[in-house]
Amino acid sequence: MPTSANLTDAIFEHAAKQPKMVALEDMTGRLSYRQFADLIGRAAVWLRGLGIEPGQPVGVRLANSADHLILSLALMRVGAAKIEFATSGAGAQFDATVRNLGVKTLFIEPPARAAGDLRCIAIGPGWRRTLADFKGDFRHDGASPEPTDILLSSGSTGPSKGVPCTHRLTLGRLADWNPTYLRAGMVSDDYTCTFLHVSSMSFTGFLIPLLARLVAGGKIVILPEFAKLLDFVRAIRAYDDAILIVTSGMCQDLLSCAPEQGLLFPKARAIICTGTPLSAETKQHALRSLTPNFTEIYGNAGAGIVSALFPDEIPAHADSVGRVIPTLTVEIVDGADHPVGPNVAGFLRCRGSGVVEGLIAGVSSQAGFEGIRDGWYYPGDLAAIDQEGYLRLKGRAADAVTRRGVQVFPTVVELALMSCPGVRDVAVLGVGAGQDTQVVAAVVANGQDAQALHLHCIGAVGAGHTPDSYMFVAALPRTAAGKTDRARLRQMVQKSIERRRAVS
Fold this sequence. Notes:
Blueprint: H1 9-17, E1 22-26, E2 29-32, H2 33-49, E3 57-61, H3 66-78, E4 81-84, H4 92-101, E5 105-108, E6 119-122, H5 127-131, E7 149-152, E8 162-165, H6 167-184, E9 194-197, H7 204-215, E10 219-222, H8 229-237, E11 242-247, H9 248-255, E12 270-274, H10 280-289, E13 294-300, E14 304-309, H11 314-317, E15 323-324, E16 329-333, E17 346-351, E18 371-373, E19 376-378, E20 381-385, E21 391-396, E22 401-403, E23 406-408, H12 410-418, E24 423-431, E25 438-445, H13 450-461, E26 469-472, H14 486-503
Helix pairs in contact: 1-2, 2-3, 12-13
């Protein structure tokens, strides 16, 4: 960990201790820690020349690259409130988020065009030549209470929410998470392993582990986007002793390439899956076919890592997301905020030194499923904890469907359907209202029909929790974080229902 308050100081400390060690690699080449720190310092001076002030909300909407990471770290170094946006998904929701967060400057891919009072600055191939004209460094002390990062929730169930994080909070989280990362293979006392960054830097589940690896003095490799899955697999296999963080969707894709015998990634140090929880069968499959060093982590932007399920726990507890990390306090409560007993589903809430104290972007901290109440952070998840302390997710509170007096948890049904042979992806949601509410499953599958799925689901969750209908689709819509975009899926389902009604 760095010895001072600005998180980026760790990079400068490594530059002094191991200047020639490779810090960063992408398609354009490699940078040593000395070169990396020098570019961050120059970029910080350049940013100050643009009028970027500590605490100022600044947006970054760039494809993954070394320059993207240099810019993001330079913004953190000057104390700006950096917000990472996905390069896809422009529209009303993006405009509303920018407006609510008070963003006035946005760094984008060239060409840059002004958008109202939003100043857009292009970061193109010649950006490092621009930095060559700037010397030195500008460092904010990091002790300010203003956020240096505003993390965005995934937006899978509605508009993204802003989660403000200071240098102190992020450094505290990394310290709290080190035992988890150490056991998962994420960090170690040596610098030999490589962190492969494979998804958008806008996704918190990838950005924070990337920062953890830099703080530990490791090597980051930013892989490009691959049009073909097999090219992606070959790129991963080219690295020995690599760490790979994947979403559940990416995990499913990788498993589709796994051999019938042996491991797809026999040389990997660790594969960590985060995001939407995997089915028990998928975790066991990953352990057999991807790497024996497979770990699932559950977390959120407001609290960071909540729980982890390690390889030695998967055989007996694959239906859970593991035990809560020791530095976090987690409770399951009912609708009146009273704690419930073991194995009883309720609202998950947590508190600890790494938990945020409030949300922004026009979201009240006292209303809705997600928020801060009485010192507890409620992420909006439904869950249960058993007698051994293993956490089982039941889904998002906003997604729960009440049908004819019975509450149906989509995540539970989705995990049941994912255990059916041939099913590659699924999402369950409610449509309609009142007595007309129906539960619909959108399914990506090979060689299955609705009747077979229905019988399988009855056996897994009981007749009272099965979908009313099944809609087969080529692929589910995804957010930039790789999660199911339920808002878009709902539109798809409603259009399909309307078409069927028109035909009948």
